[in-house]
C-alpha cells in the first residue's frame, strides 16, 4: 500500500526553496542556519506574498484531494500514524549510590 501523502509546504517554505540559491549567491560561504535567518528577514520584509500564498493554497488543495483518495483506497489515518511513532525507551533501573550501599551495611551491623 502507498504511504499517506506528505503535508504541503507553507507559502514561506515554497518561497525559501526558490530564494535559497539567491541568498547563497549574495553571501558565499554562508551557513545553513544563516540562510534560514536571512530568508526569514526577507520574507517578513516582503510586501506582496500573494503569489506564494496562492501556490501554498493550491498545494493544500492537492494534498487534501490526495488524502481523500488515499483514505478512499483503504488508507487508514490512525494505523499509519501510530505505526511510525516510536515508543519511549524503557527506563533503566536507578543506580545505587554509595550512600545507599552504606545504609545497607548499617542494617546488617544492627542485627
Automatic annotation (TrEMBL):
Recorded GO CC terms: chromatin; nucleus
DNA-binding region(s), residue ranges: 5-71
Biased composition (Basic residues): 83-97
Bias type Low complexity, positions: 72-82
Keyword hit for DNA-binding: yes
Residue stretches making up the HMG box domain: 5-71
Cellular compartments annotated: Chromosome; Nucleus
GO molecular function: DNA binding, bending; minor groove of adenine-thymine-rich DNA binding
Record key words, sorted: Chromosome, DNA-binding, Nucleus
InterPro entries, per database record: HMG_box_dom, HMG_box_dom_sf, HMGB
Biased amino acid composition, Acidic residues: 102-111
Disordered: annotated span: 69-111
GO biological process: chromatin organization; regulation of transcription by RNA polymerase II
Name of this chain's protein: GL16947
Organism: Drosophila persimilis (Fruit fly)
